[in-house]
Amino acid sequence: MLTLDFHPAGRHFLQIPGPSPVPDRILRAMSLPTIDHRGPEFGALGLQVLAGMGQIFKTDQPVIIYPASGTGAWEAALCNTLSPADHVLMVETGHFATLWKRMAEALGLQPEFIGLPGNEGWRRGVQADLIEARLRRDSAHHIKAVCVVHNETSTGVTSDIPAVRAAIDAAGHPALLMVDTISGLACSDYRHDEWGVDVSISGSQKGLMLPPGISFNAVSKKAITASKTSAMRTAFWDWNEIIAMNASGYWPYTPNTNLLYGLAEALDMLLGEGLANTFARHERLAQACRAAVKGWGLEIQCADPAVYSPVLTGVVMPDGVDADAVRALIYERFNMSLGTGLGKLKGKMFRIGHLGEANDLTLMATLAGCEMGLRLAGVRLAGSGVQAAMEALAAPTSTPDLKGA
Ligand code: PLP
Q1: 355: Cβ below 6 Å to ligand 1?
Q2: Which pLDDT does position 4 carry in this prediction?
Q3: Is residue 305 part of a domain?
Q4: Is the minimum distance from the CB of 203 to ligand 1 under 6 angstroms?
Q5: Terminus of the chain with fewer CB atoms < 10 Å: N or C?
């Protein structure tokens, strides 16, 4: 058994941008006895979660559920639709976009990484006009897919997916549109069908409030057609067999039964709250978090207010302050985990997650922990971010809907 010599009182504050804290309702649902995944009851559970995920992705087309982390669902998207050496257009928005590009290379694809010069892409998200210009130059249609990240969890910057769709259409290009909404889904508006996405990729451990361990592909008819001729080899990720068996609520291999109990509960919570209310709650908390960062006189990693993330906020440290040392102090002193800076941002910033079942008081406690920790670390603050966030939450325009839809 794992032994820890660290036993602080109270709950740990898991304020990283995923995995997000798992609500008690979901933990209890997952504690039910594991059932026969080929038995009569399982089919009903399978059909229930597949239908519910269609509502979350806003799609009438198939959703595939994998017993895998989000990285697996990235691989599934590429392997089901593409052929070795295919060109794919990817956009440098941060660490996760970079990892996805590395995966494409490892799979023998030819990714082209475009974006703003320097680290600007890590502050401003996808620029759809760059995609359009690149696709217009590809008159021979060598590029088979455009891959973008909806909510860059490494930066707290979102990207405008309908603008990317419009750019592809304006260029008259047939490339598939693949979107990583691993941390965006169930936190901010997402419309697989309406936005014309061919493959949407997501995971369990963010807005869906589950532990890590399941991930998703939502697909389009065009993506399914591409999967019939794709020359990349894949067995585990193959959509077609899974979709065929999912028709009766079953999987070709063992699904993670207890996580699916948890998913059924999460769907009940999210659809009960009403997705529009869930998104408004995230937006409101994110605004208050940003008010706090501004109150401290610190910089937000996202430089364009139009694409601020409702999921997390990246807090840039003043020169000479090691963000990981601040995080370590906050962890030890207040039993709270904040997200580390990833890739190019290592040590330069930390990330505050405000996703999942976050509410006013979890946010305020989180910000109090940050403010106390920043002061203890000797970071000079302009003022109280906690006070600024309380004012933001108390503003008459900022009314929480505690009753739900
Ligand atoms: N893409 C994004 C935007 C993510 O936030 C993450 C994980 O945080 C991943 C991909 C990778 O997913 P996983 O770690 O579940 O494999």
Answers
A1: no
A2: 66
A3: yes
A4: yes
A5: N
**17 within ligand 1 shell (Cβ under 6 A):** no
Amino acid at 184: G
178 and 232 belong to one structural domain: yes
Q: Which atom of ligand 1 is nearest to the CA of 72?
A: 16
Confidence at 340, pLDDT banded by 50, 70, 90 = very high
pLDDT tens per residue, range 247-272 = 999 999 999 999 999 999 999 999 99
| Whether residue 205 sits in one domain with residue 313 | no
Q: Atom 12 in ligand 1: which residue has the minimum CA distance?
A: 70
- 207 and 279 assigned to the same domain: no
Residues 220 and 316 in one domain: no
* Integer Cα distance of 225 and 220 in angstroms: 9
Q: Select from 182, 214, 340, 345 the residue to mutate for testing ligand 1; criterion: most ligand atoms less than 8 Å from CB.
A: 182
Half-sphere exposure of 102 (CA within 13 A, CB side): 7
Instruction: Name the residue of 16, 20, 71, 102 whose CB sits within 8 Å of the most ligand 1 atoms, as the mutation to test its pocket.
Output: 71
Total-model pTM: 0.97
Confidence of residue 404 (pLDDT cuts 50, 70, 90): very low
In 3D, which of 158, 69, 80, 173 has the Cα closest to residue 122? Answer: 158
Q: Count, in order, helices (H) and strands (E) of the chain.
A: 14, 14
